[in-house]
Amino acid sequence: MRRVIGAGLGLAVLAGGIGWWITRPVPVPPEAVADVTGDASHGEEVFWAAGCASCHMAPDAKGEAQLVLSGGQRFETPFGTFVAPNISPSPAGIGGWTLEDFASAVTRGVSPSGQHYYPAFPYASYTHMRLQDVADLKAFFETLPPSDTESQPHEVPFPFSIRASIGAWKLLNLRKDWVMTDAGGEEIARGRYLVEALAHCGECHTPRDALGGLDRSAWLEGAPNPSGEGRIPGITPAQLDWSQSDIAYYLETGFTPDFDSAGGHMAHVVANFARLPASDRNAVAAYLKALN
Amino acid sequence: MKTFFSAALAASLVLGGAATAQDYAGHLKARQGQFRILAINLGILGSIAKGETAYDEATAGAAAQSIKAVTMINQAPLWPEGSDNMSIDGTRGQPSIWDDFADFESKWSALGTAADAMVVAAAEGQGAIGPALGQLGGACKACHEKHRAPEN
């Protein structure tokens, strides 16, 4: 009998151990970034495409102040309220981080101290980023003004307050494969990289399942607004009949084909896209037109 | 009977307390109509900027002047308290407009500044219209970003 209990206990410990093992935070290995050097000027393009400032600038920051990534914007979601942290190059932000730290945070949602980040930080999109782009982005971050504003804690109730549970979420949702498996041609492939990785369009335009993972079977088909009322519109050809040049023009100016204008968080997205080369806006439009 | 009275009481509280879209029907039409006039004239200029229609100084100038004219409409009377999207249907105007009406008015006035630039650009020629549209679009977005709710 004792042996049975012992074996049972052993199994439970083993199962717990396996559970811990497969849900543990896994940083980017140091050798992966050993030979990568960042280029700040290309990093600026990555920065705008990835929309970092839209969430990490101070609430209502305008103009140059948008480059001070002191955090503080609040994002209310069904899982709790997330407060964007300070990610400026200062001790209150990401000052002193190695490229390994930065890449682990951005592409795997793992903090330098080995904690899981909440997926309000869209690393499930950024996980598709090329390491060179991650390094360039970090080099650009280091040129930005530091801020000593302390990051505020998230307001997340139990059970989502248990960060270990994010490990299980990552098993389900942190996927390396693209949603559009067959991106024909260079333009659509570039569009796929922008839409699925950098600009993380799916984070708002795709509905989520009960655990907050993106429902890839309804990719970009529209979803409830994660913070507040109304809906984020679907942008597949079935829902949006704009031409490729209509979409590119919208991303540049914020004007729809009937000259309504972008609002809400999309106004930030348009302001970011307006800073990118026209070829990138066309690539996003080509990708969207290629979705079935 | 008691149930009937409390139901009637509840109904009268509900009906008596809340404003309805009907109370502000004229305000909503005026608000949305002015945005529609803006959109139609922006469409004329946008089509010229994109090269879909040929530039013609009179057409471009009239569109720019119409936009300018709309921006000169005093907004305060069109936005009475209680006509936000939390209180009534039929509007996407958020309570933030009334929480900070000075901000709302300064954004409207920025639209006027952008419209002035468009009046100048429309007289200059096709190439000047695109950048002026960018400025106008920026003014639209700045206000929509903060004060307009997404579509349902």
Automatic annotation (TrEMBL), chain A:
Organism: Poseidonocella pacifica
Keywords: Heme, Iron, Metal-binding
Protein name (Swiss-Prot/TrEMBL): Cytochrome c, mono-and diheme variants
Transmembrane portions of the chain: none
Keyword Cell inner membrane belongs to the record: no
Cytochrome c domain span: 38-145, 186-292
Domain of life: Bacteria
GO molecular function: electron transfer activity; heme binding; metal ion binding
Entries under InterPro entries matching the protein: Cyt_c-like_dom, Cyt_c-like_dom_sf, Cytochrome_c-type_DH
UniProt keyword Transcription regulation, yes or no: no
From TrEMBL, chain B:
Recorded superkingdom: Bacteria
GO MF annotation list: electron transfer activity; heme binding; iron ion binding
A GO BP annotation: electron transport chain
Signal peptide bounds: 1-21
Modification after translation (UniProt): Binds 1 heme group per subunit.
Keywords: Electron transport, Heme, Iron, Metal-binding, Signal, Transport
InterPro entries cross-referenced by the UniProt entry: Cyt_c/b562, Cyt_c_II, Cyt_c_prime, Cyt_c_prime_subgr
SUPFAM superfamilies assigned: Cytochromes
Binding site for heme c: 140, 143-144
One GO CC term on file: periplasmic space
Protein name (database record): Cytochrome c556
Native source organism of the sequence: Poseidonocella pacifica
